[in-house]
Description:
Structural class: alpha/beta
Largest sheet: 6 strands, antiparallel
Strand content: 5-15%
Radius of gyration: 80 Å
Amino acid sequence: MQLLELEFENFKSFKGHVTVPFGPGFTCITGPNGSGKSNITDAILFILGSRSTKLLRARRLNQLIFGYQEGKKSRSTATHCRVSMVFDNSDRFLSIESDRVRFTKGVRMRGGKPATYYRLNGDTSSAGEFEALFSRAGLYATGYNIIQQGDVMQTSLMSGTERRRKLEDVAGITAYDQRLRKTRSAREHIGADLTLLDERMREAQRLLRQLEREKRDAERLEAILQQLQENELQRKWRRVLDLEAELESRRGLIVRHEKELEELVGELEERQTTIGVFEDDYKKVEDEIFDAGGDRARELQEQLDKARVEQALAQSNSESAGARLVELEASRRQLGDARKAAAAELKELRDALDEARAGAGELEAQVTTAASELARLEASAADGSQEISGQRDTLDALRQAAGELEMQRHRLEGEREQLERQLQLAREQLERSEQLLKAAREDSADADFQLQDLELGRKSAADNLRKVTAKHGKLVSELVLAADRLERSESELREAALALAAEEAATRARDEIGGYARAVQSVLAARDTGELDGIVGTIAELGQVDEEHALALEVAAGARMQSVIVRDDSVAAEAIAFLKQRKLGRARFLPLNRLRRYRPGANALLLVKQSGAVNFAQELVRFDPRYADAFGNVFGDTVIMRSLNEARSYLGKGRMVTLAGELLEAGGAMVGGSPPRSGIHFGTGTRDNLDELVVRLGSAEAHKLEASAAVLELREELAEVAQAKAALESECSTTQTRVTDFDEQATKSADGLLQAQQSFETRQGALTALEGELDEREAALAELQITITDHAGSVEQAATALQELTGGVAAERLAQLQSALGQQRESLSEARASVARFEAAEEPAAGEEQRLASELEQNLAEQKEQQTLRRDERETARKLARKVKALKAEEDTKFRELKELRDRRDQLRDELAEACTTLAQREEFGRGRRHATDELKIEVATREPKLVEARQRLPEKAEQPPKVGGSEQLEGQRETLEGQRGRLGNVNMLSLEHYRQEEERLARIREDRKQLRREVRRLEALEAKISARKLERFSEVYKHINENFQSTFTELTGGGKAWLELEKPETIFDGGVSIKARMPRKRLFPVEALSGGEKSLVSMAFIFAIQRYDPSPFYLLDEPDQNLDGVNTEHIGRAIALQSAVAQFLVVSLHHAALREAAHVIGVFMADDGVSHLHQIHDVDSFIASLPTEEVAA
């Protein structure tokens, strides 16, 4: 490696571009003082990297630029300077793949300030790269290869310690010292750091314990947020997949619907033709039914009804006759038994009468005998007295009258008994008459009732027939009108459905597909069906908001918009059990009886008063005041803010939501990005149109269904009315026949009732007469009894008087006879009374027997009559049965014909109705399919951009998860996570970062402690190693340089001796290095005792010794012979010449000896304008000769 040339441009005293060529070996640079020789040295120092402008003999970098003066603005003033060194690198001493290497360094003025730049072979480089390359080449701005003015003498004046340090620099152990100092310093610092780290570790551990709980909550929240983020990504994928599936499904449905519509056109034409055939057939069958059910059918029905009525009457008469025969037979048996009993009783009476008459005859004979005897005695007694005779006559007359009265009494008693029996019989007959009369009246009333009922039925049937006929005509008109209404309703339904489809499509274009969770939907459905009672509704249903605040309030409520307000906690429990039983998921319920009254907190009250705050979220929602606590539970202390920038000023002071939808949690978390999309919204004015269309569609569907139902109902009713009309016509005819028959029966019943009434009245009169006669007999008998009693007293008085008159034995005999006669007369009276009773009983008994015989004859006669009647009625019933059978057979034939026709008509009607219904359904199906196809096309058109939007919402290069859950599952997961997040409350997320930082800090502290301890051990080992290496290196260098110094000094002085000596050989680095020198022919002196020239020689020898030990590519010596005499200058020159054989020397010198020893000489001169110039001097002797005498002498 060789320095080929040095180039200047505007460097110090050199103006413009200047090239200084350097040849191999010894190059000497000479020139007058102040000519600029040392500027060449400065240029080399500048490019080698001197960082001090003092070494360059300049205060600032801009003073290196030729002619530059601060504040002076002149066009001729240079604004930059540069220096280039060119080396021969053919031996690749420099690690650069180039034979020539150019190092360029310059200074450029920019904005009045100097700026340094570097280039290597024309390419931009840096000071670091220059320093690295020069260091590897052994070139240093402050190294021993560059000796500036005064350095030679300074070397000899060094102290021993400085000289030792110089040797240390040469040996490179200065770096060891530095490393040792750094190592020791580092070890001390490490000890201090260890103490500090111990304190920091304890502090970190204490702080970690404090942050542990907050960290756990934060980690849970972070995990939940991560899961929510994954859930959000899954929901985005689900949204994409659902949209793709929906689009694919809808496109498939559109193709299928269009194909079905094409097939439906032909089907409808066929069905129209079929309906026309059905209508023609139906009309023909109706005509046949009308013909078959005409006059003959009605006549046949009338005859059949009349025959049935006559048959029923005959059967009834036959049955009545049979029942009467049974009654008559029972009565006959009773009458026979009664007649037998009456005959036996009559016989007994007649026998008793005969016996009583015989006893009475005997008694009469005895009485006659006794009376004769008594009369004889009385007559004997009366012979003597007229008075006794008179008494006897009187007594006889009284006795005769008493006997007559007694006979009369007995006769009256017999008559009374007979009358009592007649009265009892009359009463029994009257009771039977009353029963017969009652039965006759009931039969008459029943006949009248049936007749009235039939008459009412006839009138009702006639009225119904008139009404049905009128209704039939009315139904025909209504059917026409209903068909028109149905057509209009279908048209309205189509228009409403298309309008609703368009509006729904527009709405779905604004809103994502979404909605309530399955659990909430199930609860609301159960509420609507009445399965669950007490469900009020969701927060979203019950709240109304302005469009301006809708997004913010929906974000503020979040998943709680699905909260269900219920009447009380029992309803909530019932709803939860309902969800559990059906496994429908979970829902959040707000029981009105358990909610706490909402009151804003102090922080929220302060926050809402700040600038940028709109209001509390709850205050911006319109709802029923009864639900205030529920909305307070949902929104809490959330404050709506105008913008994110305004809200950030109060971050951490409360829960805030901006109008743009950003959420700022009270714990410091911020949630934002693209506006959230949800299928659940509060009610706003923009949805009114959709609601109106839904109402309109519902109304149209209701009208259509009503009209369709009315048409079907009218058709069915018309068929029923037609059938009822025919039935009523037949019923009217039958009823008229039955009215006539029952009218005759009612007349017969009235006649029977009249006869029964007359019989009853006759028997009642007879009973009254008998009762009167019996009363007369009773009165006569009472009077007669009184008379008899009076006569009996008179007789007894007369007898007594007679006895008194007679007196004596005769009187006693007379009294005896009278007593016996009285007894006999009494017995006779009793016998006569018995005869009279028997006689009185005989006549009624005979009359009763005759009556019974007469009634038995009447009974037998009536039985014959009833038998004849029953036989005749039975025959009549059989004839009528045959007639009815024949009529029934004919009717059945007609009925079968009519039934077949009616069945055919009903079948045709059903088929026609079914065909019409099917046609209407298929037409409705076609309209529905066209509507559905249009709606599907609209949905496809609206979903395609939504699919693009949904895909754009996915993160870039996001891969589809292997498994994407369902919407309900993901929504339920999100609700669960949101619930877990809500239960965590306010979480200090900074604590997680603080914990992590503290944990990392603690780990770093522990790791640093380990490293520091390892470093302490390493430094201790290194210190020992460095110290040993330093000693070893220094000893080696010291030995070689001492040897070089001795030989070099001998060469320079021509026989002198000098050497280096350690001041403290045992502890080298505690002492210095001294120089011992002895000049030729002189004694040994320390270097401090030598002359200036001798010191320079010692210094030069020392420098050469160092250079010989560690050679450099080139050496720069600035006036090293400055203080030497001519002889020593020559020694120095020769020494340099000898050294130049192995190295390149650049020497600045004014001595001729150096010029003569140099292989190349360059002269430097300064012109009058202050610009330095270079000249290559080839003839040194001529050059020296040309110098002025003073300079030559010098």
